[in-house]
Amino acid sequence: LDHRWLSLKNALIVFQVVVSFVLLAGTGLFVRMLIEMRTQDLGYAIDGVAYLQTDARYAGYTPAQATPVYEDLRRRVAASPGVESAVLSRGLPMDATGFTLVVDGEEAAAGPIVNLSSIWAGPGYFETLRIPILYGRAFDQTDRRETPRVAVINETMARRHFGTANAVGRRFRYENDINSWLEVVGVARDTGTADLDEPQPQPLFYVAFSQSDQPPTTVLARTSLGAAGLLMAMQRELRAIDPSLPVIAAATMEQRLQDSLFGLRVATTFLGGLGALGLSLASVGLYAIVAFSVSRRS
Prior knowledge:
The relative contact order is 0.22. The strands form two sheets. The chain has a six-stranded mixed beta barrel. Helix 1 (about 1-40) packs antiparallel against helix 7 and helix 2 (about 65-80) packs across helix 5. The model has no long low-confidence stretch (mean pLDDT about 80). By secondary structure, it is an alpha+beta fold. The chain has helices at about 1-40, 65-80, 125-130, 155-160, 225-240, 255-260, 260-295; strands at about 50-55, 85-90, 95-105, 115-120, 135, 150-155, 170-175, 180-190, 205-210, 220-225, 250. Strand 7 and strand 8 (about 180-190) form a beta hairpin.
């Protein structure tokens, strides 16, 4: 009976050791993924870049009244010490949203392009994030609500969906709106997005918030000094304009990218903890069996 009990105990310990090593190996894989994501070249500026998002509607402003407020905030931030560039945008920087598109021309014969990612931008956006324009131009002050709608696309979208590196002059539209044609005025270098979990690079297109019916919500700035100090200055200038204006989101780009890895960090910690716990239990069980066997022999 004792022999069978020892055999069962040995089998359980071997099972614990194997499972523990599998969990630890999985932890090592997640750690490697974290390191690779943190060190990958995203293709846009991170150091010294911060943003502040507000919404003037919550302070009682109409859309017409809100636009001058955002512009005043941008000017104040641009005048802060060390600030090299400050621009307006809508939503969080490099935050991509999926849309279904149709390409004008022969490539459209394959049907709609499903779930292509779009990013809000505006005049000065590419310069602030140091995203090079390879062909054509970036958005400027001439891109307004009353002018023909335009877009800037990245290299991957140009090659994959237009069949050429220089797709300036080509058109595409949203699938559910036949009157929503956008003309490509520029091709930007491939970059990552704010979500590091997504495959990089992916097809992207940028649209100008200045051509939409919605006002900007975000001030994005780059400084030669510390991004944390810039973030404090941006919040200070917002309160100086109107203390009732809320801070919806405020962070450095470094913080934003770290937040996107939160789920992966939690999974890594959880698996590592389980692996260490299993290995500890297996070690205790192995010690108990060896001690019991020695005592029986003695």
